[in-house]
UniProtKB/TrEMBL annotation:
Domain Histidine kinase: 189-401
Catalyzed chemical reaction(s): ATP + protein L-histidine = ADP + protein N-phospho-L-histidine
Gene3D superfamilies associated with the record: 1.10.287.130, 3.30.450.40, Histidine kinase-like ATPase, C-terminal domain
Molecular-function annotations in GO: phosphorelay sensor kinase activity
Family matches, as Pfam families: GAF (PF01590), HATPase_c (PF02518), HisKA (PF00512)
EC code(s) of this entry: 2.7.13.3
Matches recorded under InterPro entries: GAF (IPR003018), GAF-like_dom_sf (IPR029016), HATPase_C_sf (IPR036890), HATPase_dom (IPR003594), His_kinase_dom (IPR005467), HisK_dim/P_dom (IPR003661), HisK_dim/P_sf (IPR036097), Sig_transdc_His_kin-like_C (IPR004358)
Name by which UniProt lists this protein: histidine kinase
Keywords: Phosphoprotein
């Protein structure tokens, strides 16, 4: 028996194998399917996806073999990786000086008499193992079988590339989740710390206006009005930021059963409507099973927008709901100022605004609709908008049943 020499690039080859992070992982169907197909196509009892580690060969997938690894010194595949561009085929191992006396060949119950292995290359081009077939009798592959075995080895390489890509994606997702958590905590902390000084500014401006009005001229009162308005606007902005980041915490599985119209009536009462507004509830008071808090936030935001961004003497809002086999569908239809067609595509993006002013002369912050979209998606749904400028806007959203 001759022990295979180690490749000249052994150090780099082992580093490449370790970077793959696949040694000692559990069996996976996509690899097992390949070894089963290899054994079937080549007409052998055994097939293996073998990876050559420093002192062992480990089997990612195997057919007809009970062990998960063997010593590298007795490995046929250790010889195969020294010819990374060729298939190593041994019709009869008992007649090959490299394997005479090899315990895998002389095994009394399961001798390996035939071997054919195609080297498997890592993403960065190192021969890290093989796809091989083995049999307990002398054998020779046909040209078609050799071609099929090579093609299957290339499929293993593709799976390894996908494995690496998935690992990179998981790492990116973990980093993103970490950064999102930090950003959320930062936004919550900053927003909380800013709300109290703003509240003090608003209260102070009211006190100055009431207690010292005789000492303040018209310009002074106007400046105090600007101060209060700006403080209220900033306070609203901070509240919206907090709502946006809190919206990601809603769980689709946190569900309760409730009557839709009862919830909508509570929302309408909650909104401070300062002018004539007609809000028509759905004709049928559907029983809904979903995350009630999230749905309330969605409707509260959309109805509030329909009221704020309306230039008609009478605001009319129609609320509609339908139940489908897999989802609920809701529509909010208003007679407001509408949304320009060239801006509809990005109204749900964070901090993007249409540029219009509301009924009170305030401009939006571009947070509300982004929060709505995030809430809808957290409930397994989607949201779209359709609008005719100066006539009406319809928001349609679905959530999973």
């Amino acid at each position: 028996m001759i022990i295979a020499s180690k490749p000249a690039n052994e150090k780099e080859r082992l580093n490449s194998l370790r970077r793959l992070k696949i040694l000692d992982t559990i069996s996976e169907d996509q690899y097992d399917n390949i070894t089963e197909l290899a054994a079937f196509v080549c007409g052998t009892k055994n097939a293996i996806i073998s990876l050559i580690d420093e002192d062992r060969q480990w089997f990612k997938s195997k057919v007809g073999i009970n062990v998960c690894e063997t010593d590298r010194d007795i490995s046929f595949c250790s010889h195969a990786i020294n010819q990374p561009d060729e298939i190593l085929e041994i019709p009869d191992t008992t007649k090959d000086e490299r394997f005479i006396g090899n315990p895998l060949v002389t095994h009394p119950e399961t001798p390996t008499i035939f071997y054919a292995g195609v080297p498997i290359l890592s993403v960065d081009g190192y021969a890290i193992g093989t796809l091989c077939v083995l049999h307990d009798e002398p054998k020779e592959l046909t040209s078609s079988q050799r071609k099929a075995l090579k093609n299957l080895a290339r499929q293993v390489e593709q799976l390894f590339k996908l494995h690496v890509a998935n690992q990179a994606l998981e790492i990116s997702q973990k980093h993103l989740q970490k950064h999102n958590t930090l950003l959320k905590d930062f936004a919550a902390t900053v927003s909380h710390d800013m709300k109290m000084p703003l509240a003090n500014l608003i209260v102070t401006s009211d006190i100055l206006n009431k207690k010292y009005s005789a000492l303040i001229d018209d310009d002074g009162r106007q400046y105090l009005g600007y101060l209060k308005k700006s403080s209220l606007s900033l306070s609203d902005y901070i509240t919206n930021i907090l709502s946006h980041y809190e919206s990601s915490s809603h769980d689709i599985e946190d569900r309760t059963t409730f009557n839709l119209n009862d919830v909508l009536e509570d929302i309408v009462e909650l909104i401070n409507i300062k002018h004539h507004c007609e809000i028509n509830l759905p004709e049928v008071n559907h029983t809904i099973y979903c995350n009630q808090v999230a749905l309330e936030q969605i409707f509260l935001n959309l109805i509030s927008n329909s009221i704020k961004y309306n230039d008609k003497e009478e605001t009319i809002i129609n609320l509609e709901a339908d139940i489908h086999s897999s989802h609920y569908e809701f529509r909010i239809i208003d007679n407001g100022i509408g949304i320009p067609q060239d801006k509809i595509s990005y109204i749900f993006e964070l901090f993007n605004t249409v540029g219009e002013y509301d009924r009170d002369g305030n401009q939006g912050h571009g947070i509300g609709l982004s929060t709505v979209k995030q809430l809808v998606e957290s409930l397994g749904g989607s949201i779209t908008a359709k609008s005719e400028l100066g006539v009406s806007t319809t928001f349609t959203f679905t959530i999973e049943r």
